[in-house]
Amino acid sequence: MNSFLEATEAIDCDHPQIRDLAYQVIHGARDVHEKARRLFDLVRDTIKYNPYSPFFLMEHYKATTTLRRGRGYCVQKSVMLIALARAAQIPARLVFADMRNYRVPEKLAGMMATNLFVFHGYVEWFLGGRWVRVTPSFEKELCREQGYPLVEFNGREDAILPSLDAEGRRFVEYVRHHGTFADVPLDLILRAWERAYGNERVEEWKKSFRE
Q1: What domain range includes position 152?
Q2: Does the model's pTM come out above 0.70?
Q3: Rounded to whole angstroms, how far apart are CA atoms 62 and 76?
Q4: Residue 168's domain is classified under what CATH number?
Q5: How far from 103 is each of 100, 112, 123, 169, CA to CA, in Å?
Q6: What domain count does the chain have?
């Protein structure tokens, strides 16, 4: 369990900015469940989801980088939530899965040439004696704009992207799970992207996605 409380290269939970922010958010919370809910809401809604963020260096994933930038894609937002959780002494780790998004925006689908998101990242944290999975990817504003179902976390139960939206339309499908990690397995992610999307496309993204 200690490995899920420690700082890593990307999960810089020992940085003063992360520690101070975690303290501000959880101060006065009555229990660990309320602490977790507050941290989830903060990352979900104040860090904007942006799939066009730089992604090929570990520096791009640091919680402090995402905090400064104010945006990130699913893995970067998850890292920030994990860093805040660890700063609040809540054990937390990354979870990865390949996921199909049946409501992916046309521009993004065109860029990827598929609706399959390889190594989609989310969070698993230890609450109430068990591991609970949450996805902080899509903020309220984005959900309103795109008509996505909003993922809401009550501090106790899994809160991941649902298979159907409120009208019964297909939303996401988890097609393959890759397990849990204490830090960002960047080499593994990049190799998986190259296999799925092609080396040329990934290299073009490296050139195009800037701060």
Answers
A1: 2-208
A2: yes
A3: 7
A4: 3.10.620.30
A5: 9, 14, 22, 9
A6: 1
